[in-house]
Amino acid sequence: MTDDRPRNVLFLCTGNSARSIIAECVLAREGCGKFNAYSAGSMPTGKVNPYAIDLLERQSFPTGELWSKSWDEFAAPGSPELDFIFTVCDNAAGEVCPVWPGQPMTAHWGVPDPAAVEGSDEEIKNAFLDAFRQLSNRINIFVNLPLDTLDRLSLQQRLDGIGKH
Q: Given phi > 0 = left and psi -120 to 50 = alpha, else beta, which region is 119?
């Protein structure tokens, strides 16, 4: 990883309506041009969760270009060549995450699904805020990794470790 081009990062989740969308927005901002952020789902819902939109707008993220899309779009000819793929679905919730073919580095950064939370409006908003904080923390660690100096094995260990934070 020694060239200066921006790295292409895909965040995957089942519905591509909340966690992966949030991660895409956070990396787009925090990556400071070093990364191109994308998100997709194995079974996209077709719309972004309104609680995710509300949270992102309250954090001053642009939301007008966000949409729920299939991860198949990133396997199509002409798609960006991906450097990293992070699954953000929470296996404990019983979700099925896609397996990505190819050579990108991958890691699982599971986060509980805030869209699955039932309760008051405040409880649901807090679940989305918790997911946002967890993803933001992991992404901030990722963007500060010394990608140019880590060999592939060391980088993989660091990526896996981020998922435990």
A: left
- The reported pTM is 0.92
The catalytic position among 13, 66, 115, 143 is 13
Q: What is the mean pLDDT of residues 123-129?
A: 98
List, in order of start, the domains of the chain with CATH numbers.
Answer: 7-154 (3.40.50.2300)
Taking only the tens place, the pLDDT of each residue in 130-157 is: 999 999 999 999 999 999 999 999 999 9
Question: What is the residue type of 98?
Answer: P
Sign of CA dihedral 61, 65, 69, 73: negative
Q: Is 32 an active-site residue?
A: no
Instruction: Find all residues with CB under 8 Å of 165, minimum gap 6, and list them.
Output: 134, 137, 138, 141
**Amino acid in position 137:** N
Q: What angle do CA 28, 10, 69 make, to 5 degrees?
A: 95
Mean pLDDT value across the chain: 90
Q: Is 36 helix (H, G, I), strand (E, B) or coil?
A: strand
For 52, half-sphere exposure in the C-beta direction (CA atoms, 13 angstrom radius) is 27
From the list 21, 40, 97, 131, the catalytic residue is: 97
Q: What DSSP state is assigned to residue 41? A: E
